[in-house]
């Protein structure tokens, strides 16, 4: 069975979340567990109340079973996000954010809202940050140039969102450039 045309050019958000679930995150375990080997590596041992770093997928699993508290990453704080939003609004370029910030923050806000301080403010800042970055992306795509393209500091979700349009636009620009070169030779 083949995928619909609209899905063939980009990865779906749930697939991006799955990829992001390999990122390591810090937890405070509520249970003791020996070091355990998985396909992606060995993790543990878990000894309460000592913090441990494990993949996000494992942290989610333990959190849903009420066997750990997830420690929010440093970048998932009001201060950090507010500074990035201010930077986003005042500067021409994109501010530095973790490459998978959108996916990880969505998962953490959905699964561990009780482990995150000022969750409503963080949700609001993430939404404002996303809107500011999307506006900048759209503005940048309006000025698309075949010779030079610089989209540094975009995160994976943002790259995924613009990929279908970008691929199509670059194809048209290449075609136009080829036609112009052919006319110049005649």
UniProtKB/TrEMBL annotation:
* Annotated Pfam families: PSF2_N, Sld5
Q: Give yes or no: UniProt keyword S-adenosyl-L-methionine.
A: no
Gene3D superfamilies in UniProt: 1.20.58.1020, 3.40.5.50
Subcellular location per the Swiss-Prot or TrEMBL entry: Nucleus
Query: Listed GO cellular component terms?
Result: GINS complex
Q: List this protein's GO terms for biological process.
A: chromosome segregation; DNA replication; double-strand break repair via break-induced replication
Q: Which CDD domains match?
A: GINS_A_psf2, GINS_B_Psf2
Q: Which residues form the DNA replication complex GINS protein PSF2 N-terminal domain?
A: 12-71
Which InterPro entries does its entry note?
Answer: GINS_A, GINS_bundle-like_dom_sf, GINS_Psf2, PSF2_N
List, for all copies, the residue spans of the domain called GINS subunit.
75-171
**Keywords in alphabetical order:** Chromosome partition, DNA replication, Nucleus
Q: How does it assemble?
A: Component of the GINS complex.
Q: Which family does it belong to?
A: Belongs to the GINS2/PSF2 family.
Q: What is this protein called?
A: DNA replication complex GINS protein PSF2
What species was this sequence derived from?
Rhodocollybia butyracea
